[in-house]
Amino acid sequence: MSDRFVVTCIVCCALILGAPGATVHAQTPSNCKEPHTGTSRVPMLSPPLANVVTGTGRLQFYSAPNLHCPIRGVFVIPNDALIAYAQTRDGWSSVMYLNPGTGNDVSGWVRSARLKVTGTVGPK
Predict the structure, then answer these.
(1) What CATH architecture is 44-120?
(2) Cut 0.90: pTM above it
(3) Angstrom distances, CA of residue 53 to CA of 16, 17, 35, 77, 122
(4) 3-state DSSP assignment of residue 97
(5) What is the pLDDT of residues 48-61, one digit of tens each?
(6) What are the residue boundaries of the structural domains of the chain, listed by start?
(7) Contact 92, 112 (CB under 8 A)
(8) pLDDT > 90: what percent of the chain?
(9) Nearest one of 27, 37, 92, 33 to 59, comparing CA atoms
């Protein structure tokens, strides 16, 4: 085997696997850690707010307020009702969705811009 062939193979492998010293933006579980609610960064909503999904298309659920943390296959659509429990200053809401057909619920984070407040949730 020629030295040139070996060097070419090493360069190709480095490009495929990532060159040494290159910054890797891999998502780790710590990147998708849900923040503590009730802090100044993520204040709780009291009482929780009833919302309806606006806009068009699916509204993706995330495990944390981070676009790199989607919950695969979990989304709501326009006119679905959500309950918001907390909001961040950078446009995320901690919500719960209760499927009226199955009774199953899911909690996560969505972009607040797609929500319209319809009232509060609490005893009447």
Answers:
(1) Roll (2.30)
(2) no
(3) 41, 41, 23, 7, 20
(4) strand
(5) 999 999 999 999 99
(6) 44-120
(7) yes
(8) 60
(9) 92
